[in-house]
Amino acid sequence: MTLRFLAVATAFLFPLQTIDITTVLNNATAYVERYEPALGLVIAEEEYDQRVPLTDLAFGAGRGRSGGMAPRGGNGRGGFSVRARQEYHEQRTKSDFLMMRLPTAENQWVGFRVVIEVDGREIRDRMDRVQDVLTRPTESAIEQWRAMADESARFNLGDVLRSTNVPTFALVVLHREHRDRFEFKHVDNDRIEGRRVWVIEFEEVRGPTLIIDPIKGIDVPTYGRLWIDPTDGLIARSEIKTGHSESELESEITVRYQSQAGLGVWVPRDMRESYKSRGQNLFEGHARYSDHQRYGVSVEEEVPVDDQEFPRSGR
C-alpha cells in the first residue's frame, strides 16, 4: 500500500516528464506572442550602472581592434583597446524603458530606452530626440529599429557597440520566424519563485544570425539558456551569449523576470551584462527595473517621459 501510494504521489508531482521539448517550445513561443503586446502597454523605470576599464593610451594607441554587436539590420561603430589598467570609469543612467511595435509583416516588438538622467544630470533634449526617432521618415521598419537601437545606446559607456543590451532581446530566439535557425536541448530542471521550470540550452546554427558585427560585416552566432515553465511557456530567466574565451569579443547578457500582477506575464527584474576580449574585462553592466505601469504607446505616438553598489561579478 505504501509503495503504491508513493508511486501515485510521484506521478502527481512529476507529470511533466511526459511533455516533450517541442511542446514546451511551442508553449514558450505562444507565451512570447502574448507577452510582447502585453509588455508593449508597460513602461518601466530603469536604473543602469555601467563600468569600463580605463584604457592605457600609451600602449593602446594605434593597437585597438574593431568589434561590436548590433541587431541584424542595425549599424554602428565599435572598437576597443585590449590593454587596460585596473582603474574603472563608472556611470549611472536613469531611463524609461518601453516596448514598441514596428510596422513589419510580423508586427515585431522592440525595446526602447529613453535616457532621462546621466550621473544626476538631466538630459534636456530627450523629448526632441525621441520625437525625431519616432516621426523620422524611414524606408523600412529595419531603419526604424536601427534608429531606436542607436538612440537606446546613446549613453552606453566604452567603445564596444552594444545596441542589443535591452532585457527582452533573448526572447527573439523564440519567434516563429527565427526558431528554425536554432537547436534546443533540455539540460536541467530548476525552481524559480515556486515554479518548476525547464532549463533549455539553445544554439544558433544557421544564418542569417540575429546579431552581426557591423564593422566586419559578419554573422555573430548566439547561444545560451532559457528557463521556461513547461506548462504555459512562461519565461522566468534568459541568458544569451556570443563568442568564447579565445574570441576577440565575447558577451553575456542575463535577465531575471518577476511576476507582475494584472499583466499575465513576468516583467524584467534586472539585467546583467559583460563583455570580454580573450578573458579580459571590457565592460560590466547592471540594470534594474521598477515601477512598471501600463502605458499605451505606438510608433506613431509621442512618448511621454516623467520628470546600490556596483556589481563585481557577472551574474
Question: Please, could you describe this protein's structure?
Answer:
This protein is an alpha+beta fold. 19% of the residues lie in helices and 41% in strands. The protein is built from six helices and 15 strands. It has helices spanning 2-13, 21-39, 57-60, 126-135, 141-152, 176-179; strands spanning 42-55, 68-71, 84-101, 109-118, 121-122, 161-162, 182-192, 195-204, 211-213, 218-220, 222-228, 235-242, 250-259, 266-277, 280-294. The strands form two sheets. It has an eleven-stranded antiparallel sheet, covered by helices on one side. The chain has a four-stranded mixed sheet with strand order 6-2-9-10, with no helix packed on it. The longest helix is centred in the first third of the chain and has 19 residues, at 21-39. The model is unreliable at 1-14, 56-67, 74-85 and 297-315 (pLDDT under 50).
Name its key features.
eleven-stranded antiparallel β-sheet; disordered C terminus; 315 residues; single chain; four-stranded mixed β-sheet
Element layout with pairings:
Blueprint: H1 2-13, H2 21-39, E1 42-55, H3 57-60, E2 68-71, E3 84-101, E4 109-118, E5 121-122, H4 126-135, H5 141-152, E6 161-162, H6 176-179, E7 182-192, E8 195-204, E9 211-213, E10 218-220, E11 222-228, E12 235-242, E13 250-259, E14 266-277, E15 280-294
Parallel strand pairs: 2-6
Antiparallel strand pairs: 1-3, 1-15, 2-9, 3-4, 4-5, 7-8, 8-11, 9-10, 11-12, 12-13, 13-14, 14-15
Brief description of this entry?
The protein has 315 residues and is of the alpha+beta class. Helix content is 19%, strand content 41%.
